[in-house]
Structures are given as structure tokens and as C-alpha cells.
Amino acid sequence: MSSATTPIRFGIIGCAEIARKVSRAISLSPNATILAVGSRSIDKAQKFISDNSLPASTIPLAPYDAVLDHPSVDAVYVPLPTSLHVTWAVAAAKKGKHVLLEKPTALCVEELDVILEACRENRVQFMDSTMWMHHPRTEKMRELISDPTRFGEVKTVDSIFTFMADEDFLQNDIRVKPDLDALGALGDAGWYCIRSILWANSYQLPKTAVALRAPIKNNAGVIIACGAQLLWPDGRSAALNCSFLAHLTMQMTVIGTKGALHVTDFIIPYEEEKGSFTFVSDAGFTELVTGWVPVPSKHEVTADLPQEARMVREFSRLVKLIKEEGKEPEAKWPEITRKTQLVIDAVKKSVDNGFESVDIIG
Asked: What does pTM read for this prediction?
């Protein structure tokens, strides 16, 4: 097999539910392959391989260190609980393995900085697994909100991600356990909201975050529903709402001075093969104020691969450039991750400190 077609070889560290989706994505990506699956036990790793119909050549390994010690593993996907990220992402980087890390990436920015520094020191690519960033719809939406004649300047963003968790989830899922994923709904669903807000604002950090009053916590003190407002010095604002206690909703609205964009499935498209959104520019009312002129136009964007496979493809492309051409790791992905974590931290601090305004300092 020539260098041009040699795939990036992944090791998966942990058999979490989300790893099923990403293992499929690795299999679908034309420049990646799964070499090994690591778990705390060989039996569990083998079961994951079998249950997900991975190639018979996939190597079951235990414990997690065995994945990092395997000389043929180029990169690792880490879907472990957030409390374990700093340990295993740093260990992977020190072993020279490129790191695709599940979100939320850390419990706080101080932990994330340890991960990112390890990746820099060892010249490995870092990327978080925020999949919707890689859908071609996202690029098309960027084109429209970047058009000064049709959209103008961003003024406000509203982002919501909620889903109605069942009782088993609310009692037993790692996302409600303070020792595993202490950020709860804020770190899980809120991560997407905050990323979308930053995306719409070209990753310019807000100046302040203010959590909305009356967040809902479980008996262990983990947030299972909350909201917040973000403010910029020039008058821009954004609102986010995330919850494990409301019907499945994942919508984003970006409003500019001349136009508005609305998408109702921005995290996971209704259909895997395509994604749509609406856009309107210079809208007003009809003469008797009985309708809009013009009405929002619907834009549909097809995808050559599922968004998670496109994510793997892009990550693997960057890894190949480092591995085979000596390129430096792409810096934009860790920078975007760090900004997302900074806002998460500020919202959490506002919740913990009586809903006070918290400054966000990059």
C-alpha cells in the first residue's frame, strides 16, 4: 500500500456508547482505519469489536495503556468520562499519539491547558469531537452570515440543546455523576450551545457570562438543566439553554443587522445525508402586516459522508501531514476548544457564585 493511501491507524480508548458512532465513522472515513480497541478487560474490548462488526483484524487490548504502547497506533479516540481525560490524553500525547478527544474535553480550562501543552510539546494533533463543525452545511451557513450585504453584523445568537432523559439516564449515566462528569448538562449539551455561539461570532470571546437563576441540579449537585446569557463589549449578546429534562431540541438562531439564519437540527441533522436551514435578508411586513416579504428561503446541503466521518477524515488528513510531511499540528482546533472551555467555566462559576456576572479572560 502506497504512502498516499496508507490510512491513519486509530486506537479507541474506552468502550463508551458514543464510541460506537465514532468507530463507524472511522470505518467510513477513506483515510482512517481502526487498529485496536482498548478497555479495562480484553473480554469487553472483544465484545465491542464483535457488537460493532469491526474488522476481524481489530486488536482487543487491555488495559488502556496497551493501546498507547502499541507501536502501530497513530492516533487515539478518547471517549472516557471527562474526569479521566487529562490523564489519558496527556499519556497519549507523551507516547506520540494524536488525540481526538470527546467533549467536554476537561472539567476546567486548567486541566485542558495541561492536555494542550502535552500535545504541543509532543507535536501531536489535537481535536475535540464536536461533529457538526464538519458538516458541509456549517460551511454554507458561515458563507451567508459572513456576507455584509445580506447579513450585516452579528447582533444576537440563541442556542438551545435539550433532550428528555429517561429515569435510568438520570440515575445512572456518567453525565449525572459528580466523580465522572461533574459538568452535567452544561458540559454535555451546553458545550454544543456555547460552541455554536462562538462559531457565529467568529470565535471572539464574550466579555461576561451570567447564568440564569434557578438551574436544576440532581441530588448529587450536578447540573441537569441551566441557561446563561453572554455579553460582548460592543453590544452583542447570546443566550443558551441546555437540559436533560425537556423534549429533544437543537436549534440555533443567528440574527444580524440585515439578515437572520435559523437551523433546527444543528447538532445532529434530521437526516444523515443532508442538512437544511433557513435564511432571510431585509425582511419586512406586507402592507397590512399580515405576512413577511420576503419569506425566509430554505437551503439544503448534502453531505458526501456523515459529519462524524468527515470529522475523522479531516483529523486524519492533519495527522498524515504531520506524520509524512513534517508539518506542524493545526492550531485552530485546540484554540477553539480552549475558548469553548473558558465559557463553560465562566457559566459554571456564575452558577456557583449566585448568578453573578463573570468576566471571561482568554
From this structure: 0.96
Q: Which helix (H) or strand (E) holds 78?
A: strand 75-78
Tell me which of 44, 47, 94, 103 is the catalytic residue.
103
Distance separating the N- and C-terminal Cα atoms of the chain: 45
Residue pair 19/41 in contact (Cβ under 8 Å)? The answer is no
Tell me, yes or no, if 103 is annotated catalytic: yes
186 with 314, same domain: the answer is: no
Per-residue pLDDT reduced to its tens digit, 137-160: 999 999 999 999 999 999 999 999
Same domain for 77 and 225: no
Domain that holds residue 96: 8-132+308-331
Q: What is the residue-wise DSSP string for 221-277?
A: S-EEEEEEEEE-TTS-EEEEEEESEEEEEEEEEEEESSEEEEESBSSS-SBTTEEEE
- The whole-angstrom separation of Cα 173 and Cα 155 is 37
Which of 155, 165, 75, 77 lies closest to 122 in space, CA to CA?
A: 75
